[in-house]
Amino acid sequence: MKVVLAVGRRKASLARATVKDGKGRVFVNRRALEIHQPELARLKILEPLALVPELARRVDINVDVSGGGFMGQAEAARTAIARGLIEWSEDAKVRELFKQRDWTLIKSDVRFKETKKPGGRGARAKVQKSYR
């Protein structure tokens, strides 16, 4: 039995996907993907599976995702699933298909929230002076 582990990241979210032989079942944090809410996040996670439906029907995927918000988790899970499918299929055509659709399916988006600095309310905003 072939088992592949893959990782995806987005902002503060980290997703670990396990891809193995199966019947096309997908679980995110031990819950079926069909009941995952909100719907926009579910559609984002389904994107790599919709691009290769014949491959998606032959594997079971378990994704454990933590950290960040619901959309960051969805994008991290999407990247982990796509990487797992590429490695499981061992087919360069699958990678090229994902690459043509959206590069972040393969490579995690490295952008992160800028940290707050002293002297202000946020990363760039500073307290105004009015002595003139």
Describe, in plain words, how this protein is organized in 3D.
The chain has 132 residues and is an alpha+beta fold. The protein has one domain: 2-Layer Sandwich (Ribosomal Protein S5, domain 2). Helices cover 36% and strands 23% of the residues. The chain contains four helices and five strands, in the order ββββααβαα. The chain has a five-stranded mixed beta sheet. The longest helix is centred in the middle third of the chain and has 20 residues, at 70-89. The radius of gyration is 18 Å and the shape is elongated. The mean pLDDT is 92.
Topology at a glance:
Layout: E1 3-10, E2 13-21, E3 26-28, E4 31-32, H1 39-51, H2 53-56, E5 59-66, H3 70-89, H4 92-101
Parallel strand pairs: 3-5
Antiparallel strand pairs: 1-2, 2-5, 3-4
- The CATH level-2 architecture is identified as 2-Layer Sandwich
Report mean pLDDT, rounded to a whole number: 92
The DSSP helix count reads: 4
- The strands making up the biggest β-sheet line up spatially as 1-2-5-3-4
Number of E-type strands: 5
Biggest sheet features: 5 strands, mixed
Q: Return the CATH class.
A: Alpha Beta
CATH fold title: Ribosomal Protein S5, domain 2
Low-confidence stretches: none
Strand share of the residues?
A: 15-25%
- Sum up the overall morphology in one term: elongated
